């Protein structure tokens, strides 16, 4: 649900060894071409329809009692991206890496490096995709909806399983060479909707949990509320992802 093989190339890099996928809005595309311009990585926007259903990882109550629930079809969207959309894009752009490698702790990721980036529910989805599939080497959750019911429990359970299984060594930070950029506006925790007020605390808690499984993490609190400074936030996220993917 939600994903298709439609896409926009925001920046076509000469070097095809890294690509940043931006989760975009089908109805109101983000105006971030300028932010993507000049990146060493190719930057591709993938429009997703019906965010409340397609980008949420499991069903959860809506904002108010009389509103529909979030649909929770994120797994289906992720599978469509990995099995159909991304392979088509990389074939069209003459890239060589396949997408046949699951699992968060898989270090043998191939020759092309990928990042996934999103805003709001797109940021929640980007982080969910990164946590659950190692085919993404990096992610950016920009003003991500980390208030979403069940998110912290899911991340805590996922990271605890990896540590207890011996798949990662918490005493060797960064050994997996994976990176997460998390950001939020300083006014977002003061939202009039109580559900949103935990978003900054949850961002920092998510960062701490990701570090326990060896991820490099930047957690940034910037100016403004959820709907402000969107181009600037994308520019900062893309720059950090691009720099990380360019590392040898």
TrEMBL record:
<protein>
    <submittedName>
        <fullName>Esterase</fullName>
    </submittedName>
</protein>
<dbReference type="InterPro" id="IPR029058">
    <property type="entry name" value="AB_hydrolase_fold"/>
</dbReference>
């Amino acid at each position: 649900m939600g994903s298709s093989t439609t896409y926009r190339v925001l920046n076509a890099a000469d070097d095809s060894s890294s690509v940043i996928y931006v989760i975009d809005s089908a109805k109101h595309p983000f105006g971030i071409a300028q932010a993507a311009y000049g990146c060493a990585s190719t930057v591709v926007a993938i429009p997703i329809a019906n965010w409340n259903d397609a980008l949420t990882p499991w069903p959860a109550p809506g904002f108010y009692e009389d509103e529909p629930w979030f649909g929770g079809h994120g797994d289906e969207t992720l599978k469509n991206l990995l099995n159909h959309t991304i392979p088509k894009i990389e074939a069209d752009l003459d890239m060589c890496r396949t997408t046949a490698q699951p699992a968060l702790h898989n270090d043998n990721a191939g020759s092309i490096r990928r990042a996934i980036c999103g805003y709001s529910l797109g940021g929640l989805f980007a982080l969910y995709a990164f946590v659950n599939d190692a085919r993404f080497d990096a992610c950016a959750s920009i003003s991500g909806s980390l208030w979403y019911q069940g998110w912290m429990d899911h991340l805590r359970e996922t990271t605890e399983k990896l540590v207890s299984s011996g798949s990662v060594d918490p005493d060797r930070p960064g050994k997996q060479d994976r990176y997460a950029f998390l950001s939020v506006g300083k006014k977002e925790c003061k939202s009039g909707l109580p559900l949103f007020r935990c978003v900054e605390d949850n961002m920092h808690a998510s960062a701490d949990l990701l570090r326990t499984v060896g991820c490099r993490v930047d957690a940034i609190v910037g100016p403004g509320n959820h709907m402000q400074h969107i181009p600037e936030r994308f520019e900062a996220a893309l720059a950090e992802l691009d720099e990380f993917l360019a590392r040898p």
